[in-house]
Amino acid sequence: MIALGIEGTAWSLSIGVVDEKEVLALKSDPYIPKEGGIHPREASQHHAERIGSLFEKIFSEVRPDSIDIVAFSQGPGMGPCLRVVATAARVLALKLGKPLVGVNHCLAHVEVGRWKAKAKNPVTLYVSGGNSQVIARRGEHYRVFGETLDIGIGNALDKLARYMGLKHPGGPRIEELAKDGKHYYELPYVVKGMDFSFSGMVTAAQRLYNSVAIEDVAFSFQETAFAMLTEVTERALAYLNLDEVLLVGGVGANSRLQEMLKTMCEDRNARFYAPPKELMGDNGAMIAYTGLLMYTHGYETPVEESAVRPDFRIEDVEIRWD
Ligand code: ATP
Ligand code: FE2
Q1: For residue range 254-274, what is the model confidence (pLDDT) as tens digits?
Q2: 10 lines ligand 1 (CB under 6 A)
Q3: Is 252 in the pocket of ligand 1 (CB under 6 A)?
Q4: Nearest alpha carbon, ligand 1 atom 16
Q5: Rounded CA separation 317/118 (Å)
Q6: Which of 6, 8, 160, 246 is the most exposed place for a label (fewest CB within 10 A)?
Q7: What are the φ/ψ torsions at residue 191 (nearest 5 degrees)?
Q8: Which CATH class is domain 110-278?
Q9: CA–centroid distance, residue 265 to ligand 1 (Å)
Q10: How does residue 168 score in pLDDT terms, banded at 50, 70 and 90?
Q11: What percent of the chain has pLDDT over 90?
Q12: Was domain 3-109+281-316 assigned CATH 2.30.40.10?
């Protein structure tokens, strides 16, 4: 079976085609703001303008009549962006005469990670711009055991980077600078129960930037924030008595975060997994794969139920597969 998936919850616009075994095609055309953060309206205009040519690129590699289902990111995300994607998916499904499957974006990050990294029953640390969650399967649902109380770690990195005059996306730039950091400056370490918070840290780091080297700000920020994420992931492992950690989401590309999680896993005799980099951040292949998984387990989204779900939670999906 072959599935086409469209991702477009925020800045990323991406179309992927997969079968049960592999990614057959993947094309992306991200919206990059000229300055400042992401404006939902501008991002959605970008998606509307570019989605046609992205389809052309995909269909130069796979034949439209080979597609069996059309999957799309139904939420969570920015309403205007989600609507462009849902409309395109409905039109394509109708045109091809194939079923439509609405996919939860967070679930797609987890499932593509399990698929390509071959983790069975992991504690997943999902870290992206808008989301930061510690997730594990309990029975027929995924549960969120810990999450950010304010902004996602990626947005925190991007916000700090912007303040320090760096270009968007800021995460990779902070990672580079942090490698040359020499002094650690204390920043607010905020873990409450199993939840964490980053906005106080951003404010404190911005203050720090006015008096110390930018490399040290980047280094101190990463060390503090990633230690918080590692601590909560470790506590979930211990509490649930699991022995696998899966890292997904755009921030998962960060080598310092990977290193901290690996060390923690070694200390606990657990295994660390991460999908290839191109499947870590937002991508159409993760939507296609999860749509395929859902469809083969009885899911289909009739057009009248295909309205976007900006607040869609991973817990809302019944998981019918192993
Ligand atoms: P979601 O909708 O799931 O919140 P997203 O729209 O934020 O996802 P992702 O591709 O999952 O998209 O993540 C993007 C984030 O990842 C950005 O905030 C970016 O700065 C961050 N990022 C990318 N590479 C790195 C890196 N090497 N280190 C730290 N952060 C990174
Ligand atoms: Fe994402």
Answers
A1: 999 999 999 999 999 999 999
A2: yes
A3: no
A4: 250
A5: 21
A6: 160
A7: -120, 120
A8: alpha beta
A9: 23
A10: confident
A11: 96
A12: no
Instruction: Give the residue from 261, 270, 10 showing the smallest Cα distance to 158.
Output: 10
Ligand 2: centre distance to CA 314 (Å): 12
Ligand 1 atom with the shortest distance to the CA of 155:
18
Torsion of CA 229, 233, 239, 241, to 10 degrees: -170
Cα angle 223, 226, 228 (rounded to 5 degrees) comes to: 105
Please give the mean pLDDT across all residues of the chain.
Answer: 97
Tell whether ligand 1 has an atom less than 6 A from the beta carbon of residue 8. Answer: no
* Segment 100-135, tens digit of pLDDT: 999 999 999 999 999 999 999 999 999 999 899 999
Say which DSSP state 37 is in: S
Considering every ligand atom, which ligand is closest to the CA of 257? 1
Mutate to test the pocket of ligand 1, among 82, 282, 311 (most ligand atoms within 8 A of CB): 282
Delimiting residues of CATH 3.30.420.40 domain(s) in the chain = 3-109+281-316, 110-278
Q: Which atom of ligand 1 is nearest to the CA of 76?
A: 2
DSSP string, 208-232: HHTTS-HHHHHHHHHHHHHHHHHHH
Residues across the chain: 322
198: tokens are 């980053």
Here the tokens at position 112 are 């593509």
- Ligand 1 atom showing the smallest separation from residue 169 Cα: 20
